[in-house]
Amino acid sequence: MDCQCLDVAKDCIKVLQKQFPESKRVGRLEGILLEAKGLWAEAEKAYSSLLEDNPLDPVLHKRRVAIAKAQGNFPTAIEWLNKYLETFMADHDAWRELAEIYVSLQMYKQAAFCYEELILSQPTVPLYHLAYADVLYTLGGVDNILLAKKYYASTIDLTGGKNTKALFGICLCSSAIAQLTKGRNKEDKESPELQSLAAAALEKDYKQRAPAKLLLLTSALKSLKTS
Fold this sequence. Notes:
By secondary structure, this protein is mainly alpha-helical. The chain contains 12 helices and no strands.
């Protein structure tokens, strides 16, 4: 099926059906073959029928989500993913998939909730901290950007200072906070120490890995007033 040899796949499934006539796994393969042919309604019907016999089969639920996504029907994909997560709350891949759909639809508050769930269940995965920080920065506002800065910092901590995107995130957040808090008391403003460390780490990284672009980096950091 991955190679679009659907006739061969159909023959293989016939052999499996003969060998395992009551197999639910073979039933799933039949549904996936229908998906490969673009017969979405028939595939969804096949999965719904299988779910009646085994409502706790996670693969069948995910296949239905895949059908909705393939057709560009994101509201239905969101509905089914939320319904799936009511039962399988510890499925990290499902939470991440839901978060990415929300981001694609610019539903950032909902995406933030998904990443919060992921960080609660897997607090040492830097990817979730980074994605959450990106969403918070996109939402904007002083409180969100301050929190985004903290999660960019935790990403740097979890990766041993090796995450270039998080270092840039620190600089962007620092610049945004400076603009948003302009005119406030000094007590309300943040120390520039973290942004200076991030800028220095970026310059060191570029010197080692992309020296030809060091001047471009320096110019960008100066425009952010972090260098």
